Amino acid sequence: MEPFQNVKSIVTPLDKVNVDTDQIIPKQFLKLVQKSGFGKFLFFNWRYDENENMKSDFILNDPKYDGSKILVAGDNFGCGSSREHAVWALDDYGFSVIISSSFADIFFSNCFKNGILPISLESEIIQKLLQETNVVEVDLENQIIKTPSESISFTINSHKKKILLEGLDDIAQTFQYVDEISEFEKKSTVPSVL
Amino acid sequence: MNIVEKILARASGKSSVAPDDVVFADVDKVMMHDVSGPGVLKVFDKLKKQGIAVDKLFDPTKVWVAEDHFVPSADKLSAENIVKLSNFTKNYGIEKHFKYGMGQYGICHTLSHEQAMVMPGDVYVGGDSHTNTTGALGAFAVGLGHTDIAYVLLNGNIWFKVPETYYFKLNGKLPDHVMAKDLILKIIGEIGNDGGAYRTMQFGGSGIDDMSVESRLTLCNMTTEAGAKNGIVEPDQKVVDYLSAKGATNLNLVNGDADAEYSKIFEFESSEMEPMIAKPFSPDNTCVVGEAPSVELDKSYIGSCTGAKYEDLEAAAKVLKGRKVKIRTEVLPAAISIYQRAMENGLLKIFLDAGVTVGPPTCGACCGAHMGVLAKDEICISTTNRNFPGRMGHVESQTYLSSPMVAAASAVTGKITDPRDLK
């Protein structure tokens, strides 16, 4: 995983609550297991009509937001199925920060496994960010979102911050300690799996 | 400590744990299916490229695999995923692979109890959000993403933040024609679809004592729809009898201490429940059937890990016996073992006589993959667990969630119907 860098981008305002993983990536794409390419199916039913033409009224199809790396949405983002494809699709599309007033549990956890930063903020701040039209900067090291008019601080578990900044997923992180683990296992009477 | 805290303390080698503690817990059982399995393989490929050894699992005897979402293969891609999954289980020495078309197979969450794959007191993780189902046996049963499952497969453990527990005290036996599905829809309607977020939802009280194991499975299954980390019921003699009948031995029941603490206690009068539905497009958009909108239904679907256990089929058959369906209706038993009992006990005949189609066990149209998906503007009443836009087919189709009895009664009239109102 790539280390998480500061992100400077305009925000894509997705003013919806309970955005579930069926909407983020519908079931027909769950059969795909190639490493990339899920981005084009992100929010498929919202982005395309029946003939797979872009729907002009959906926010992601507004050229103004091309290249945006920050998605802002309402409460309970990522609810529903555990499909990690939802995070893969957001990542592949180009989002590296998701900001919401709350996240569903498994989705939240899946973000960190794939280098995406989910930020949880008060609903009033979300309402303000949904209106923000300028470029904002997300600074993970200092836990600050800078808009032209203010600095918004956010909280994050220190362990999760570290794995994002160092670009480690849980597995890679464990394997950083492979020598210590092997040493421990040598002394252990329990059979080793490493 | 309550039951979840006791299970996590045991699994992490600690004498006690409390909510918000972070523990590294040994995992007793791991499950993946034909969607999460190929996802896990993708994670393994990534690790291999990073030079990390992925040639051995922590313990293949603790891993089991189900084929359920895209079987019978809906197209070439899903057929290829089954081949990949089969090669994976062969290469890693996983013997418990429930294959479509070969003896016992079915929906993963149904196999977890029908085939006694999970025991009381287990830490059980699965690559699917409805893994919560199996908490009804008294296990800590949690759904994980693909990367986390890959991690568990290699290391045999994973960290958890010990969840706070919401205790739902259920008072009294459910009335006739009212099922566990009605009760859990009522609860989700009250607490909202993130009302249990990051928390354990534990069910107890006289309503649980009076409830079958299968009904408890329905409650725990739907805790996912309230955003819960897991659902759980303390195991009692009913669970012991249920699992013993399936050949399980040496059960170690874990129960909460007398002074167990809960962060919040809710009370529901289960004896006063009414048949419920959840309207489109969220499981928390509930009302009693008596206040349901008057819509013309196109389809009734009785299937899934939520609503096609033996007891569910039996309840639907009770309603359909001697009647004919007015709209197209499908019953997909959730596992072959259930299908077989339904055949032996005459339920299949009741369904066929009523004009219902009985399909093979699979997740089918529940996740909108195949086997009877909905067209634009079609309206379905379904015993499944989610009714998000497009969940069961076209994004402009609609799904009402209900109990098997309400789905069966509605099949007879073509409108959303309280089973008590059938003449």
Query: For this structure, what is the CATH homologous superfamily of chain A?
Result: Aconitase, domain 4
**Total helical elements of chain B:** 14
CATH topology of chain A, anyone?
Aconitase, domain 4
Distance between the ends of chain A:
22 Å
| Rg of Cα set of chain A | 19 Å
Secondary-structure element order of chain A, N to C: EEHHEHEHEHEEEHHH
Main sheet attributes: strand count, strand direction, barrel closure of chain A: 4 strands, antiparallel
* Outline of chain B: globular
CATH topology of the largest domain in chain B: Aconitase, domain 3
Give the C-alpha Rg of chain B: 21 Å
Mean pLDDT of chain B: 96
- Indicate the CATH architecture of chain A: Alpha-Beta Barrel
Domain count of chain A: 1
- Considering the protein shown, what is the CATH homologous superfamily of the largest domain in chain B? Aconitase, domain 3
Q: What does this protein structure show overall?
A:
The complex is a heterodimer of chains A (194) and B (423). Chain A has a four-stranded antiparallel sheet with strand order 1-6-7-8, with no helix packed on it. A four-stranded parallel sheet of chain A has the order 2-3-4-5. The radius of gyration of chain A is 19 Å and the shape is globular. The model of chain A is unreliable at 189-194 (pLDDT under 50). The two termini of chain A are 22 Å apart. Chain A has 194 residues and is α/β, with parallel strands linked by helices. Chain A has a single domain (7-187), classed as Aconitase, domain 4. Chain A contains eight helices and eight strands; from the N terminus they run E-E-H-H-E-H-E-H-E-H-E-E-E-H-H-H. Chain A has helices at residues 21-24, 44-47, 85-93, 105-113, 123-131, 158-166, 170-175, 178-187; strands spanning 7-9, 11-14, 70-73, 97-100, 117-120, 136-139, 144-146, 151-153. With 423 residues, chain B is of the alpha/beta class. Chain B folds into two domains: 3-268, Aconitase, domain 3; 276-421, Aconitase, domain 3 (2-Layer Sandwich). Chain B has helices at residues 3-11, 36-49, 76-91, 108-114, 146-155, 180-191, 206-209, 213-222, 237-244, 304-307, 310-320, 336-344, 347-354, 404-413; strands spanning 22-26, 29-32, 63-66, 96-98, 123-126, 140-143, 157-161, 165-170, 200-204, 230-233, 264-268, 276-278, 286-288, 299-302, 328-331, 357-358, 379-382, 398-402. In chain B, the strands form four sheets. Chain B has a seven-stranded mixed sheet, sandwiched between helices. Chain B has a five-stranded parallel sheet with strand order 4-3-2-5-6. A four-stranded parallel sheet of chain B has the order 10-9-8-11. Chain B is globular. The termini of chain B are far apart. The model of chain B has no long low-confidence stretch (mean pLDDT 96). Chains A and B meet through helix 4 and helix 7 of A and helix 2, helix 3 and helix 5 of B.
